[in-house]
Amino acid sequence: MKKILALVAILAIGLGSVNAQESLRWGITAGMNVSNIKVSGFDSRVGFHAGVKAELGLPQVTEGAYMDFSALLSLKGAKVDGGALGSIKLNPCYLEIPVHIGYKYAVNDNFTLFANAGPYIGIGLFGKLKTTGEIKNELESSIGTSSENIFGDDGFKRFDLGLGLKAGMEFSKKYQISIGYDFGLTETSDAGAKNRNLMISLGFMF
């Protein structure tokens, strides 16, 4: 937890140091995740993300260039639905901090297109590994269910690192809708799992 707080503090200090610049904007964002892991046999599952974001214009680079920062609570994971044989659900929840570089193109005063890309870091906060399967004996059969901490000693690693892409539209210089995709680069488990995540987001800039 101390490492998580330190990362948030570093981000806040870094953004606060440029707070006086007129090109800095703050906002909130939330949306849907459709996540999976790069391991054969697993299917995608639906989660969510929500948090705060900031945009810093970079006119010194070129008109329309900007940096996009976020601090998000993001539920990812994957599942296996084996029907009568049982199921597995992975529900890891991360604190994610993406830092992207992008470009905005103003079509007119009320409509802007944007795209950005860059790295993200993720810190595993909590989550469950849930399994359900049929247990049989000589007299009867029943459904057995187990649930354990997904970031336990034999579970997922807490640190995640990857690259993300995003594209979207902004209306009236306040409302945003975007679609993005994150490619995890680090193996989050001994089985070689890497996070994959499609995001559909809504945002509001103050």
Concise overview:
By secondary structure, this protein is mainly beta.
- Give the low-confidence spans: 135-142
H/E element sequence: HEEEEEEEEEE
**Major sheet: size, sense and barrel closure?**
8 strands, antiparallel, barrel
Instruction: Determine the CATH topology.
Output: Porin
Counted beta strands: 10
Number of helices in the DSSP assignment: 1
CATH class: Mainly Beta
Q: Helix/strand-derived class?
A: mainly beta
Rg calculated over all Cα atoms = 20 Å
Q: Keywords, please?
A:
10 strands, 65% strand, mainly beta
Question: How does the SSE layout of this entry go?
Answer:
Elements: H1 2-16, E1 24-37, E2 45-57, E3 65-75, E4 78-81, E5 87-108, E6 111-136, E7 141-149, E8 159-171, E9 175-184, E10 195-205
Antiparallel strand pairs: 1-2, 1-10, 2-3, 3-5, 4-5, 5-6, 6-7, 6-8, 8-9, 9-10
Describe the structure.
By secondary structure, this protein is mainly β. The chain has one domain: Porin. It is about 5% helix and about 65% strand. The chain has one helix and ten strands; from the N terminus they run H-E-E-E-E-E-E-E-E-E-E. The chain has one helix at about 1-15, and strands spanning about 25-35, 45-55, 65-75, 80, 85-110, 110-135, 140-150, 160-170, 175-185, 195-205. It has an eight-stranded antiparallel barrel with strand order 1-2-3-5-6-8-9-10. A hairpin with a 7-residue loop joins strand 2 (about 45-55) and strand 3. The radius of gyration is 20 Å and the shape is elongated. Mean pLDDT is about 85; it is low at about 135-140. InterPro entries: Beta-barrel_OMP_2. Keywords: Signal.
